[in-house]
Specification:
mainly alpha, globular, single chain
Length: about 70
């Protein structure tokens, strides 16, 4: 289960969403997002509180992407 959360957070950081947007939407400090995304901090050592916020944000984004219908 933890491995899945880590993988999802890694996927979140690969999306074309700015650090600023992730920070504003999740309430996680911008510097914290930047440090994890750049690799300065290890995702495996992330606090559960931050991991929970980022994972929930990723799942919300994933749901929104799936629900977008292509217009003809």
């Amino acid at each position: 289960m933890i491995e899945k959360v880590i993988k999802d957070i890694e996927e979140l950081f690969k999306l074309k969403i700015t650090d600023y947007r992730i920070s504003k939407d999740t309430g996680v400090a911008l510097s914290v997002i930047q440090n994890y995304r750049s690799g300065k901090y290890s995702i495996e050592n992330m606090t559960l509180k931050v991991a929970k916020k980022l994972h929930e944000y990723y799942l919300e984004k994933k749901r929104r992407i799936k629900n977008v219908k292509i217009r003809k």
